[in-house]
Specification:
322 residues; two-stranded antiparallel ribbon; 13 helices; 2 strands; 68% helix; 2% strand; binds benzoyl coenzyme A
Amino acid sequence: MTTEHHEQDLAALEQRFQARIDAEEKIEPKDWMPEKYRQNLIRQISQHAHSEVIGMQPEGNWITRAPSLHRKCILLAKVQDEGGHGLYLYSAAETLGASREEMNQALHDGRAKYASIFNYPALTWADIGAIGWLVDGAAIVNQVSLQRTSYGPYARGMVRICKEESFHQRQGYHIMMTLARGTAEQKAMAQDSLNRFWWPSLMMFGPHDAESAHSAQSMKWKIKRQSNDELRQKFVDQSVKQAEVIGLSIPDPDLQWNEQRGHYDFGDIDWEEFNRVINGDGPCNRQRLAHHVKAHEEGQWVRDAISAHEAKKRQRNDRQAA
Ligand code: BYC
């Protein structure tokens, strides 16, 4: 085949692919897809998976210090859920040809990112409330939208993840509500936590649409269904009312209802801070990554044992078949 023919074939395949996307068909692992679609999905899904797993660290830190047995059981279950979410997502990325080893290596080398929010410390028990309420709350807004993403395995993974995230969000809000109704000291602790987690939560949605490197192509391929700014606005609108109900105030003097837009206006995000954190220089980046590398190395014997067991099983099956 000549190069010209090859290019014509490729253009026809790409056109058919876009027509399937436009018709709201889901793309499945064995379907033809443009290489850039595959790469972009591996990037986003693996970073999403890394976020779930790294996100276990700030909360895991509080399991032994939860204020009651009941809270401890709930937090333990929630942190385990996050690990499970990571596994669904790694599996979805594996259907695109990425291996777990490659994805882990990219995380450890600093080539793959994870959500900026997990580079902030969980300093008090109220932070566990704020993480559930705001961080899981932001994650749900983003993930509800991703339930309609064009890649089948990712979309189906999101449906299940969203169900669990809504429980996580409620447990966080319940912690905040309990503290806000408690002593003056407890209420102050809840407010301090909201003050520290509010702005980093808004950063979870990524840069403004005009600055977002991947958005235009991702929207065309329906990998993303709503833009970074649209989703951020949705999150602000829902959170203002939730803060009001429990008597906490959002730390933004520019926050104001805009009758004309039908949305809240809000202040400027500190993009310098955002860039610092996503490029490895946030308050806990080094600590989070070092912990992940250590846990991965300490788990080597488990991976070795599984491989040895699989090899023995194969040998046994081969002998029986012979
Ligand atoms: N943090 O072109 P853009 C959870 C990067 S965890 C770090 O707009 P895109 C939970 C971006 O990757 C929930 N990096 O990118 C777990 C890109 O860099 P690269 C995590 C960020 O992909 C435990 C560059 O900036 N959710 O639920 O179109 C406990 C340019 O950005 C961030 C997901 O991962 C950020 N905040 O849009 C509690 C959802 N923002 O890759 C809760 C899936 C941007 O070129 N992901 N960057 O090096 C997405 O929806 C999209 O990837 C994003 C960014 C909206 C995050």
